[in-house]
Structures are given as structure tokens and as C-alpha cells.
User: What shape does this take?
Amino acid sequence: MTRFRLLLLTGAATSLLLAGCSKPTFTQPMTLAGQQVSADVLEHGKEEYTLYCRACHGESGDGNGPSSFGLRPPPRDFTKAQFKFGWVTDGMPHDEDLRRIVKSGLHGTAMLPWDMPDRELDPILAYIKTFDATTWNETGLGTQMVAPADPWTGRAEEAQARGKQLYHGTAQCWTCHPAYATKQELFEIRQSSDFRPGLYEGEAKKSQFTKHDHEVMILPPDFTFSELRSIRDESALTDTFSLIAAGIPGTAMPSWKGSLPDEDIWAIAHYVDSLRRLRNTPEAASLRKQLMEQPEFVAPAPAEPAPTGAGL
Assistant: This one.
């Protein structure tokens, strides 16, 4: 049995004991994100949270549960009411999006999918909000990112070509994520040879998240290698649009909604999804080999200025 599984089982066993002997905490209803929640629902949510969530997220919701040791990324700290994959642009995530996160899990992390009926999950979501009720109430729910119709339907290759241009040009995604174009292609797109070091690797960025008072650095994913945290296979293209449009709060990933037209966000989503589908394939290895072994790039000399026509 691995140490991680042993820690989870130990944490779950402790949670069961606490669930069986804990005393009621809530005797009055609370207003959370604009909704009044009864004391009975909150008490039920506390019991279910203790059973399912406490092992990683901790009794006080601070992400320091008995199974949290060594987990990277660390479990979410609910006392700060910060959510990376809520897919809202200007506030707190809706319960619908929190259910998506819990039921689908976050790939590449210890947050596994939980196939849980809403009657058990919804009280947990209400209880989680009590860890920072002030933020939930003062900030309010954000505008949900609802993907419009895909204008590139039936034109996937055209969308991917446009997305590649935007990824390496206007949006400059390669300043954080890896580039997937040769330096010659980048020069032709950008008309600049100012390439960052480690061009074909992700660059770790600062975030607003902390663990034990230490700032958490986040490495943007390599789409041909990394599992994308919140992208579901059955709705990958739409999920990718929503993620790019909404951004990831607390990180260097901005919201592109309003900065780019939806048509261009869809094009980038098509391109990123085409890279995602290369993951763990010979095509991904071939692309990386091509990029790493490309000939040395020499920028063209600036064009000579045209004659002024003096003496005419």
C-alpha cells in the first residue's frame, strides 16, 4: 500500500470517528452567497464534509488535513475563498461550477472525482462557504462563463491554424506556456526575435495562493504533456473555451473575455485542444524533437531605408 493511500485511509478513519462524536455547531440559519441556509443543512454539510473532505482540506478548511502532507498542488484553503476553476469572470463560483469540480475532479492532483448525489454534495458546498462567509456574502456570485456557439464548426483545421497564430502572436501564450512553433515561425508571426529563455518549456509564475505563509509558484502546463486540471474529455473543446475566456483567478492566467472576440477565443481553444490530443503520442515526441533540434535561428538584417530622392 502506498504512503498516500495509507494517509488517505488514516484521515478517512479519523474523520469517521469525529463525525460520530461531533456535537451540533449550527443552531441558526446563515446567509451565504445571497441564500439563506438552514442550520440543519449546515450541520448535515459539516458531517458529510468531515467524512469526505476533512482528510485533505482539514477540519477548519485551511487545507491542512492529516492527508495533506506532501500533496502538490496543496489542497484548497477554503478559509480564503479562492477558487481557480470556477469559470466566472467577476465574483464567486456558482454551485453548478463547484459541483463540476467535485464530481469531475482535478486531473493531475489528489482531488479525485467524487460520484456523489446532489442531496449529499449540496450541504457540503453550503458548509464550505461558512469557512469564509464574509467573502462569499460581500463579493457575491460572479458572471458564469457560458460558451456561445462555436463559429468554427466544420472548419477545425482552419480554426487550429488561426489559433496557432493567436497563441504565438496576439495572445502571447508562449510567454508562460511552451511555444509550439519554430523560431523562424515565431519571427514571421511576431516580426521580432526577442524570445524568452526556455522557450519550449513552461515558466513558473507567482500566484496569490499560499501554503504555510509561503507563496505557491504555478507552472503553466505543457499541453502536449500535462493533464489539464479541469478539462473533461467529453466536453474538452467547450471546457477549454470557458477556461480561456474566464481565466484562472489568483494566477497569471488572465480572462480573455472582452480582450479577444469570441471567435478568436474559440480558435485558441481549437488549437490548444489539438495539442492536448497529442499527449503521450509519437506525434508529440516528433514535434518536440523538431523544436529542440531546429537549426540555429539568425534574425534577418533590418531592411535598408529607401533613398530619399535628393536632387530630383
